[in-house]
Amino acid sequence: MIKPWRIIESRQGPDMGLFRIRINRCRSPRTGQEHDFYVIDFPNWVQILAITANDQVVMIRQYRHGCGQILLELPGGLIDKDDIDPCETARRELLEETGYRVEDLFLLTKTYPQPAVLNNIGLTYLARDVTRAANPSLDPAEDIEVCLVELERISDMIRKGEICHSQTVMALSLYFLLAKK
C-alpha cells in the first residue's frame, strides 16, 4: 500500500517573484532512503469555460513564453492574495480578458495542474449565457485576442491539435463528457 513520504527537512530555494522554489528532503516509506524533491510554490488560479446563448465558446489567443507559441485557450488568471472568493476572481478575469460578463458560475472541477512539481490548484468554472459588456482591459504584460468558437467545432479542434493547452483541453473534454450524461 502506498504511503505518504515524510518530510525530514524543508528549505527555501530561489524566490522568483511569481513563484518560489522549495526543496523538501523526504524519506521513502518503502526503502527508508532520503531524497530531495523540488516543489514550486505557485498561486492558485481560475479558468472559465464561457459559453454564449448561441453556443459559442469565448476563448483567447495569447503568446505563451514557456512553449514559445500562440495558443488558443480559455480565459483565466491567478487568484490574488486579497481575493476572498475564487468565483469573483473568475468573473473579474473573464471581464478583464474578454469583455464578457456572467451572472451565474458553476464550479466544473478542481485540479492539480502538475502535481509532480507544482503545489497549486486550478479551478475551472462554467459560465453559461455570457454577454459582451465591455472592451477587454489587459494588464501591461498581456497581449490577447478574443475568439468566439462554435461549441460544435471544439472536439474536432482538439483532435486536430488546434486547441492544445492542457488545462483547456481538460476543461472542454470534461464539459463534453458531463454533457453526455
Summarize, please.
The longest helix is centred in the last third of the chain and has 14 residues. Strand 4 and strand 5 form a beta hairpin. 18% of the residues lie in helices and 43% in strands.
Question: Can you tell me about this structure?
Answer:
This protein is α+β, with helices and mostly antiparallel strands and 181 residues long. It has two domains: 6-41; 45-179, Nucleoside Triphosphate Pyrophosphohydrolase, CATH 3.90.79.10. 18% of the residues lie in helices and 43% in strands. The chain is built from three helices and eleven strands; from the N terminus they run βββββββαββββαα. The strands form two sheets. Strands 4, 5, 6, 7, 8, 9, 10 and 11 form an eight-stranded mixed β-sheet that branches. A three-stranded antiparallel β-sheet has the order 1-2-3, with no helix packed on it. A hairpin with a 4-residue loop joins strand 5 and strand 6 (69-73). The longest helix has 14 residues, at 166-179. The chain is globular and about 60 Å long. The two termini are 33 Å apart. The mean pLDDT is 96.
Question: What brief labels describe this structure?
Answer:
single chain; 181 residues; Nucleoside Triphosphate Pyrophosphohydrolase; 3 helices; 11 strands
